[in-house]
Design goal:
The protein has about 300 residues and is of the alpha/beta class. It contains 12 helices and 8 strands. It has 3 domains: about 140 residues, Conserved hypothetical protein from pyrococcus furiosus pfu- 392566-001, ParB domain, CATH 3.90.1530.30; about 70 residues, no CATH class; about 70 residues, no CATH class. The strands form 2 sheets. It has a 5-stranded mixed beta sheet with strand order 1-5-3-4-2. Strands 6-7-8 form a 3-stranded antiparallel beta sheet. Helix 2 crosses helix 3 and helix 4 packs antiparallel against helix 5.
C-alpha cells in the first residue's frame, strides 16, 4: 500500500475523530473544494448495497436543512461526461441533488481504480455507515481483488482489531438467501449477534429455518444463543448424557426431558404466575415441536438417520 494512500486514509480517520493509520503521515487539513453536483458522476460502484427509503428520506431532509456537512471524496475523470467521479459519498450526493444543494464540499484526489475502491470502503467503515454484511463482503473483496494482502493489513488500515475483521468476513459464509434478505430488507429483529449465532448451525436448511424463526418471533440474541447451543448439543449426542432439550421464549424457557416438561419463567414474568399465563408459551412450544416433527419426518423419508 502506498504511503500516499496511507496518508489519505489517516486524513479520513482524523476527520472522524479516530487515530491515524500507523505509518501514515497525515496532511492534517486536506484542502476542500466546492464542486457543483452537475459536475459529479455518481459512478456505478459503492460499498453499500442497499439503503432503505427511510434512511434515504432522512438524509435528504438533513441535507435540505443543514447542507452537506461531511465532504465527498472525488477523483478527476479524463474524457468522461463529467469532470469528477464520486469515490465516497454517493448518498450525500443523491441527497444534495434532490435538495438542490449545490455546490457541495469535496476532497479531490488522484486515485486509480484499486485505490478508489479501498478508500470507498475505508470511508464507509470509519463513518460506521455500513451494514455488518456489507462490511463483511467489502473486506473479503479487498483481499480477493488484491487491494490488500491480509486481514491484518485491513485491520491496520481501518483502525479495527484483526478479530473484528475475521468475524465480519465469516458472515460471508451464511446461507445465500439469508445474506440476500438481510442486505435487501434490513430486518430490525436481526442484528450482527444473531448472524454470528446462525453461523454455528452448519446444515444450510436448518440455518435458514432458524433465521425464519428469529425474524417471525423476534428472538433476542441471548435466546438464539441458547437455542443454538441446545441444537448443537443434541446433534453431538454426548454418550451417557441425559436427553434434554431447551426451548427458549420471551416469557421463559421449557426444559423437555424423558421425565416431562419443566417451565422456567423469565425474571419478572414468574411473579404471581397463574396456570392461564402458560397458555401463550405452551402454544409456542407446540408450534416448535410440530416444526421439529416435520423436520424429522423429512429426514426419515430421505434416508437420513433420525437424531437419538
Amino acid at each position: 500500500m502506498s504511503d500516499l494512500l496511507k496518508a489519505f486514509v489517516s486524513d479520513l480517520r482524523e476527520q472522524h475523530g479516530a487515530e491515524p493509520v500507523s505509518g501514515g503521515t497525515s496532511s492534517v487539513n486536506p484542502r476542500l473544494e466546492w464542486v457543483s453536483v452537475e459536475d459529479i458522476d455518481p459512478g456505478n460502484v459503492q460499498a453499500r448495497t442497499f439503503s432503505s427509503p427511510e434512511e434515504t428520506e432522512s438524509l435528504r431532509e438533513s441535507v435540505a436543512r443543514n447542507g452537506v456537512l461531511q465532504p465527498l471524496i472525488l477523483r478527476p475523470v479524463v474524457g468522461g461526461d463529467k469532470p469528477y467521479e464520486v469515490v465516497a459519498g454517493h448518498r450525500r450526493l443523491d441527497a444534495a441533488t434532490h435538495a438542490g444543494s449545490s455546490p457541495v464540499p469535496c476532497v479531490v484526489r488522484e486515485l486509480d481504480d484499486d485505490q478508489a475502491h479501498l478508500v470507498m470502503v475505508a470511508e464507509n467503515v470509519i463513518r460506521e455507515d455500513l451494514h455488518p454484511v456489507d462490511e463483511a463482503f467489502a473486506y473479503r473483496d479487498l483481499i480477493r481483488k488484491g487491494y490488500v494482502k491480509s486481514q491484518g493489513e485491513i485491520a491496520s488500515l481501518m483502525g479495527v482489531s484483526r478479530t473484528r475483521v475475521n468475524r465480519k468476513i465469516q458472515l460471508c459464509s451464511l446461507h445465500p438467501e439469508i445474506i440476500r434478505e438481510v442486505r435487501r430488507d434490513r430486518p430490525e429483529s436481526v442484528r450482527e449477534g444473531h448472524l454470528e449465532e446462525l453461523l454455528k448451525i452448519k446444515p444450510r436448511a436448518e440455518q435458514m429455518a432458524l433465521f425464519r424463526r428469529t425474524c417471525e418471533e423476534k428472538l433476542t440474541v441471548g435466546f438464539l444463543r441458547r437455542l443454538v447451543a441446545q441444537r448443537r448439543e443434541s446433534e453431538e449426542g454426548a454418550p451417557g448424557k441425559k436427553s434434554r432439550k431447551i426451548y427458549p421464549f420471551p416469557e421463559g424457557e421449557f426444559e423437555v426431558t424423558s421425565r416431562g416438561i419443566r417451565f422456567r419463567p423469565t425474571k419478572g414474568f414468574g411473579k404471581d404466575l397463574e396456570p392461564e399465563h402458560l397458555i401463550g408459551p405452551l402454544e409456542k412450544l407446540l408450534v416448535s415441536l410440530k416444526r421439529e416433527c416435520g423436520s424429522y419426518e423429512k429426514r426419515f423419508l430421505t434416508g437420513i438417520r433420525l437424531p437419538v
